[in-house]
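Many introductory courses stop at the sequence. We go one step further.
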Amino acid sequence: MNAQTYRPSTIEALKALWVALPAKASNDGADGDPRERQRAILDAYCFALSEFSNDAIWNTINNLRTGKIEEASKHFCPKAPELAAYVRSEQARLDALNRPKAIPYQPPPRDYLVHVVKQRQKTDELAKQGFRCIATGVDHIMSINMWKKKERSVGSIWFASLLEVWEPPHV
């Protein structure tokens, strides 16, 4: 692979890193052409960083240049696998920041006021038809007892939200 197949932003980031932190002296490939050696080093770094985003690469390189990464050498550039490990941790941090936030389940609101309003509108319509309210503050048990004791006539209506019993006009 040659360096031209890699992203230009990665190459620019590596240039900025190598200006700030020189590479350690090594005898690897010292007998060959210096340009081939530089090309091989660039290929190694670009290959190690190929799976990461530009933001993660630049953040890591800027952190290395300013000495913010504690375990990294302040005098020499890290080798390609070490740099990839630093960038990987930065990529994980960026992914966690950019991950959509989970919204906890929120049940739909039960607006009992709506039932009260609807039932009040119904009682207004019944009042116009001649119905009358015979009891207020009547819960479900009281309503059943009124029915059993025949205190509620046929056709009477119990409004649960209003706790009222209305009876028709014929009674």
